[in-house]
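note to self: dont lose this again. the chain is below, predicted strucutre after it. 142 aa total, dont forget to put it in the shared folder this time
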Amino acid sequence: MSLPLSVFGIALAAAGLCVLFQKSSPAFAFLLSLGAAVILMFRVGAAAAELLAGLHRLGGDTRGTGGFFETGLAGQAGGTAFSCLLRCTGLTLLTDYTRSLCEEAGAESLGWCVGLAGRCLILAAAWPLLEEIGQRIWSIAG
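---
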């Protein structure tokens, strides 16, 4: 959970600094907001890479050859599903609060980036559950 906390902490700190510099130096506030957005996208890049790797694994394991999903993940579906839902709920709330604070501070573009980062982090957190659902659909269909 340190990645989401660091992402939202960076966003809140940047929004606070943007508010401080908005009146005295709007250009500096814009550059600070832009820099924070770039840092956020780099921080979320690892979660997006994990999501793309999961899509690649899912695309490669559609022939019903067995593998990782049939050995251990199906037996832990209840615990995995509940923990994924809790993580996604927490990330949704944290994303919404942080995005709202950024937009109220006048950093609309940073709020948009926080929303995008939150959606990527939610998808990455829910990915094991989505893989499980996809695997079960493929086993029923084929």
